[in-house]
Each structure stands twice: as structure tokens, then as C-alpha cells.
Amino acid sequence: MIVSWRAVIIGAIIAIVLAIIFGMVSLIYGPMIAVLIAGIVVGYMVDTDIVTGAVHGGIAGLIGGIIALILGLLIGSSFGLAGSIIGAALIIAWIIDIIVGAIGGIIGSAVTGRKM
Q1: Is residue 16 one of the residues assigned to a domain?
Q2: Please, which of 76, 95, 97, 105 could form a disulfide with 53 given CB 3.0 to 4.6 Å?
Q3: What is the C-alpha R_g of the chain?
């Protein structure tokens, strides 16, 4: 399986932009919905099977999650919150982003009618 970096980068950008927008509405569910939408887009863009869509969606969630993690640490530390608490919460959120991105990739690939 060859990774389509174009689709992954587009998905990561979508995840970051939508996470900022949706994060203004809900700090907990907004970024997860953003990663799910990005995963769906990436899964739809990849021209192979459902498993590849899941992998690409997970990679997009991983990259978008890393950038969101760094931004979250910077923003959280500016409010004087303990870095260890913020870091632990953001790492858990990052793992969830990878899983949600993979689920979005599966949905995006399934929408196109591809088989496993």
C-alpha cells in the first residue's frame, strides 16, 4: 500500500481548520467531529479499498492531532494550567483522533462503494 500524502495533508488541513471552527462551539466534541469529517474526505479521496481508507484517515488524524496537540499545549500553558494535566489530556485526545480519523476513512471509502 502506497500512502497518498496529498490526501493525508488535505485531510490534516481540513481537520485543523474545522477543529478551530467547531472548537468554538464545543471544546470536547468539535475537534472530534472535525477529524471525522476530515477522515471521511480522505477515505473518499483515496482510490483503493476500505482498509486503505482507514489507514489514510488514521494518518490524517495523527498529523492533525499532533498539530492540535502542540496548539493545545501552547494555549493551555498561556492560561497557567499545569502542563502535565494538559499534556495527558491532549495525548488521550490525540489517540482518539487517530481512531476517529480511521473510522472516517472507512466511512469515506464505503460511500464510494469499494470493497474490502
Answers
A1: yes
A2: 105
A3: 14
